[in-house]
Write a structure and sequence with these properties.
single chain; mainly alpha; about 55% helix
Length: about 60
């Protein structure tokens, strides 16, 4: 199975490519997740915590 061809829609490929370019720029300093100290509804602290737990298992 070709993941990009079979799973991603054409607009998703363009978005993924542009995000990867943006993450390499010096203007971006947030990291993979938005995690604020107040843990607001915009924060992705739960996803970040889960991925840390998975990483520790590996």
């Amino acid at each position: 199975m070709d993941y990009q061809k079979d799973v991603l829609q054409p607009e998703d490929i363009g978005l993924c490519v542009s995000v990867q370019k943006g993450l390499r720029s010096q203007g971006y300093n947030q990291g993979r997740f938005v995690v604020d100290g107040e843990r607001s509804e915009l924060s992705e602290h739960a996803v970040h915590h889960f991925q840390k737990l998975v990483d520790e298992l590996g």
